[in-house]
Amino acid sequence: MSERDFPVVPSGGDPGDLVGELVDLGAGEVVDFRRGTLDAYADADPREQFGAVADAVKAGFEPAWRESRRLADLLDVHPGEVLAYSGYSDFVDLLDATVSGGCTTVGTRASPDSPPVYAQTWDYLKFYEDHSAVVRRAPADGHDHVALTTLLGHAYMGVNAAGVCVLINNLQGERALVGLPFSVVVHELLHRAGSAAEAVDILEGASVMSTHNYLVGDAESAYNVEAGADGSAVTEIADGQVPWVHTNHALEETGPAVLAYSGSSRPRYERARALLAADPSAVPAVFDDHDAPLCRHGSAPEDVATVGVVWVTYDPLRLHTIRGTPCANGGRAMGVR
Ligand SMILES: [Zn+2]
User: Fold this and answer.
1) pLDDT tens digits, residue range 161-207?
2) pTM listed for this prediction
3) Dist. CA 303 → ligand 1 center (Å)
4) Number of other residues whose CB lies within 10 A of the CB of residue 238
5) What burial letters (b/e) apply to 70-82, b meaning 16+ CB within 10 Å?
6) Taking burial as the number of CB atoms within 10 A of a residue's CB, which of 170, 182, 229, 315 is the most buried?
7) How far does residue 120's CA lie from ligand 1's centre (Å)?
8) Could you list the residue range(s) of the whole structural domain that residue 175 is in?
9) DSSP string computed for 64-94
10) What CATH number should be reported for the domain holding residue 93?
């Protein structure tokens, strides 16, 4: 593993070490960073929501609840605070604030007979380039899985041993309600789903806090899910729609209402579609683009930048990651088990 890759936790393969290693890597710094950003919300006290967020997770998402509770114990904070900051973009929707960022997600096949490749940039605050990790879980009561996420645990994007891949993209909803942070929902999907269709069922039944696009796929099929506090829209992605691209505007007319979000959403959508139409095998090279831009650079911790890239390949099943901007850094592949 080069110094440029995200750390993998647990490093020694003992699931019990996962939370402790997240703390050693700097989970407390993420809490401090987010407490600093919450100071902007002077009118309301966001801390009043922590109990309700924790209750929503505790009510039915046991793996996520266990992990947050242990992390909160080690950091001596409320578990709801860990959960709120883990799914921070949802939490600020709940506070009726605006966030920036915006990832680019694709699903493609090198040729019509090739297995699928699901990929995305992760465009977030540059701070997270040094405050994220690949988590590797082997739960006794669920599927083995690997996922890229922040040092607060759960999962932002990943794949499980059944080949179920989940990628995410922010859609700022017009409506947010106390419910499940997206990172908890992704954790749950990777833990439980045995197929992409099963993952869609779980997602449709989840009471999510705010709005995201989920690209849910396995080796055979893929779905576009746009889910929020006021409902969801699900569409199976047909062969004729591949290469598939999603950025930060809604593609489904019947999904949750979303606000205009990222000024580069449509340029990134069009650019990625054009590049993949010319070469559907161009993952991760498609993300090297600086015109739209698909690859974004920042310098300060608060800058929006491409903090990483994730892609999943089948035959063999692998999660690939790039830490930092894809134009400058090479990737790493790892198996699910
Ligand atoms: Zn670049």
Assistant:
1) 999 999 999 998 888 899 999 999 999 999 999 999 999 999 999 99
2) 0.96
3) 14
4) 10
5) bbbebbebbbbbb
6) 182
7) 14
8) 1-337
9) HHHHHHHHHHHHTS-HHHHHHHHTHHHHHHH
10) 3.60.60.10
